[in-house]
Design goal:
There is one protein chain. The chain has 156 residues and is mainly beta. Strands 1, 2, 3, 4, 5, 6 and 7 form a 7-stranded mixed sheet that branches. The chain has one domain: Nucleoside Triphosphate Pyrophosphohydrolase, CATH 3.90.79.10. It is globular, with a radius of gyration of 16 Å. It contains 2 helices and 7 strands, in the order ββββαβββα. The structure holds isopentyl pyrophosphate (IPR) and magnesium ion. The site of isopentyl pyrophosphate (IPR) has 12 residues, from strand 1, strand 4 and strand 6.
């Protein structure tokens, strides 16, 4: 294994899976991040891929752990390559995989199950004027690229 400073293991990129969930047409579920990279920014539910996990397994597990929601019909959307260098924190290189999914039961309500990591979930219209400030870096990158996460008209 390559060594970094002081003989400690060299830092390596991590993989995160983030999940678009939709409501009432063009609203997406976002939560305010607490205590990690992107503190106080708004992000999709999601988290780090565990060893041996598929993207879909990670999406279902992270969404359930963070919100209590059960999801289905996961679909790959895109990926972004992100480097975070925030003062006082070790740098983080995160490859973020974006999926979209449906709620298994559309009447489910998201709950804050990891209050140390999330300041609350809410649904926001997916347009620049309605989205909260600021967005988590990978999501901002995706929005700026003009990526449309919604299914094509007519597709459920
Ligand atoms: P965990 O695994 O704690 O949920 O990590 P995270 O929320 O910091 O994951 C970052 C990457 C996600 C949001 C794509
Ligand atoms: Mg998370």
């Amino acid at each position: 294994m390559a060594s970094g400073a002081n003989g400690s293991p060299a830092p390596v990129p991590k993989v995160g899976v983030a999940v678009f969930l939709f409501k009432e047409g063009r609203k997406v579920l976002l939560g305010r991040r607490l205590g990690s990279i992107g503190h106080n920014t708004f992000a999709l539910p999601g988290g780090h891929l565990e060893f041996g996990e598929s993207f879909e397994e990670c999406a279902a597990r992270e969404v359930k752990e963070e919100t209590g929601l059960d999801i289905e019909k996961m679909e790959f959307l895109t990926a972004t390559n992100n480097f975070f260098s925030e003062g006082g924190k070790p740098p983080v290189h995160l490859v973020c995989i974006f999926l979209r999914a449906s709620l298994a039961d559309p009447d489910q309500v998201p709950r804050v199950l990891e209050p140390e990591k999330c300041g609350g979930w809410d649904w926001f219209e997916w347009n620049r004027n309605s989205l909260p400030k600021s967005l988590f870096g990978p999501l901002e990158t995706m929005l700026n690229a003009g990526f449309d996460p919604f299914p094509a008209a007519g597709k459920k």
